[in-house]
Amino acid sequence: MQLLDGKKVSDDIKNEITAEVQKMKEKGEKVPHLAAVIVGNDGASLTYVGSKVKACERVGFESTLVKMPSTTSETELLKKIQQLNEDDTIDGFIVQLPLPDQIDTQKVLMAIDPRKDVDGFHPENFGKMALDMSTFIPATPFGILELLERYGVETKGKHTVVIGRSHIVGRPMSILMGRKGFPGNSTVTLTHSYTKNIAQITTQADIIITALGVPNYLKAEMVKDDAVVIDVGITRVNDDSEKGYRITGDVDFEFVSKKASFITPVPGGVGPMTIAMLLKNTLLAREQKLLKN
C-alpha cells in the first residue's frame, strides 16, 4: 500500500508556483491576486478561507479577504461580486460556500465572471470541462487528478466508481475520469443515495472516489484487493481529545488501507491539494489575462 500524500504534493506545487511568481517579479510583472468572499461566521469556512490567505502569502500572491455579516442580503452580495468582476487588479476570486439561507447560491455563482471563476463552478467553465475544452477545473477534482498523475496511478481501461454526485466533487470527477487522456480513459459508475447494492458495485472497482461526508462509510469488505481509494470526505467527529473532535474521512482507513494499492489519508490527502489547485487556477487566470492584453 502506498499513501497518496497530498501534503507533500501540495507543497511541491506551491514551490513550483513560488518559482513562477519569482519570474514574474523579475520581469516587473504584477503578481497574481486572489480574493475570497465569506458571508457569516461559519467556523469551518473561516478556517478554510484563512488557510487560503496563508497559502497566497507563501507563494507570493496578493490576497484580499472580504468579510460580510451573516445578515447580508443577496443584492448586497451580488453588488460586491460585480465590484470584484470589474476590479482589474484582481485575477480570480471565490465566494466561500455554504451561504446563508437568504441568498440563492446558484444566482451568486452565475454572477461571477467566468474568467475570474477560479473555483470552476460557473456553468460556462463546468460546460467547457465537460466538453474537454481548456478551462478552470474545480479545485478538489483538479487536486485528485494531480495526485493520480504525480503518483503514476494507471487509470486507462480501469473501472472507476464515484460515490456522491455533488456539483463540487462527485459529478465533475465522473466526467473527468471518463475523458480522453491521462488521468482519464476509465469506465465510470456514478453512485449516490438512491443506488442499490453499492457494495456490489464498489467491489468491482479498480478506483473508488468517495465524497459522501459519512464517517467510515467505505468498509474493507466493499473494496477489492489492490484498489485505488481516494477519500474526499471530511467530517468532524467528537472525541475526548484536547480539541474535542477529530477529522474523519468516508473510508474506514485502518482496514481498507490493508487492501488498497494506493490510498489518501484524512487529513493530509485531498484537502491540502484543494488549496494548491486553487492557487494554480489563479496563476492560470493571471496568465490568460496577460495573453489577452
TrEMBL record:
<dbReference type="GO" id="GO:0005829">
    <property type="term" value="C:cytosol"/>
</dbReference>
<dbReference type="InterPro" id="IPR000672">
    <property type="entry name" value="THF_DH/CycHdrlase"/>
</dbReference>
<dbReference type="GO" id="GO:0000105">
    <property type="term" value="P:L-histidine biosynthetic process"/>
</dbReference>
<keyword id="KW-0028">Amino-acid biosynthesis</keyword>
<feature type="domain" description="Tetrahydrofolate dehydrogenase/cyclohydrolase catalytic">
    <location>
        <begin position="4"/>
        <end position="119"/>
    </location>
</feature>
<dbReference type="GO" id="GO:0004477">
    <property type="term" value="F:methenyltetrahydrofolate cyclohydrolase activity"/>
</dbReference>
<comment type="function">
    <text>Catalyzes the oxidation of 5,10-methylenetetrahydrofolate to 5,10-methenyltetrahydrofolate and then the hydrolysis of 5,10-methenyltetrahydrofolate to 10-formyltetrahydrofolate.</text>
</comment>
<dbReference type="InterPro" id="IPR020631">
    <property type="entry name" value="THF_DH/CycHdrlase_NAD-bd_dom"/>
</dbReference>
<keyword id="KW-0658">Purine biosynthesis</keyword>
<dbReference type="InterPro" id="IPR020867">
    <property type="entry name" value="THF_DH/CycHdrlase_CS"/>
</dbReference>
<keyword id="KW-0378">Hydrolase</keyword>
<feature type="binding site">
    <location>
        <begin position="164"/>
        <end position="166"/>
    </location>
    <ligand>
        <name>NADP(+)</name>
    </ligand>
</feature>
<dbReference type="InterPro" id="IPR046346">
    <property type="entry name" value="Aminoacid_DH-like_N_sf"/>
</dbReference>
<protein>
    <recommendedName>
        <fullName>Bifunctional protein FolD</fullName>
        <ecNumber>1.5.1.5</ecNumber>
        <ecNumber>3.5.4.9</ecNumber>
    </recommendedName>
</protein>
<keyword id="KW-0368">Histidine biosynthesis</keyword>
<feature type="binding site">
    <location>
        <position position="234"/>
    </location>
    <ligand>
        <name>NADP(+)</name>
    </ligand>
</feature>
<dbReference type="GO" id="GO:0006164">
    <property type="term" value="P:purine nucleotide biosynthetic process"/>
</dbReference>
<dbReference type="InterPro" id="IPR020630">
    <property type="entry name" value="THF_DH/CycHdrlase_cat_dom"/>
</dbReference>
<keyword id="KW-0521">NADP</keyword>
<dbReference type="Pfam" id="PF02882">
    <property type="entry name" value="THF_DHG_CYH_C"/>
</dbReference>
<dbReference type="GO" id="GO:0035999">
    <property type="term" value="P:tetrahydrofolate interconversion"/>
</dbReference>
<dbReference type="GO" id="GO:0009086">
    <property type="term" value="P:methionine biosynthetic process"/>
</dbReference>
<comment type="similarity">
    <text>Belongs to the tetrahydrofolate dehydrogenase/cyclohydrolase family.</text>
</comment>
<keyword id="KW-0486">Methionine biosynthesis</keyword>
<dbReference type="GO" id="GO:0004488">
    <property type="term" value="F:methylenetetrahydrofolate dehydrogenase (NADP+) activity"/>
</dbReference>
<keyword id="KW-0554">One-carbon metabolism</keyword>
<dbReference type="InterPro" id="IPR036291">
    <property type="entry name" value="NAD(P)-bd_dom_sf"/>
</dbReference>
<keyword id="KW-0560">Oxidoreductase</keyword>
<comment type="subunit">
    <text>Homodimer.</text>
</comment>
<feature type="domain" description="Tetrahydrofolate dehydrogenase/cyclohydrolase NAD(P)-binding">
    <location>
        <begin position="138"/>
        <end position="288"/>
    </location>
</feature>
<keyword id="KW-0511">Multifunctional enzyme</keyword>
<dbReference type="Pfam" id="PF00763">
    <property type="entry name" value="THF_DHG_CYH"/>
</dbReference>
<comment type="pathway">
    <text>One-carbon metabolism; tetrahydrofolate interconversion.</text>
</comment>
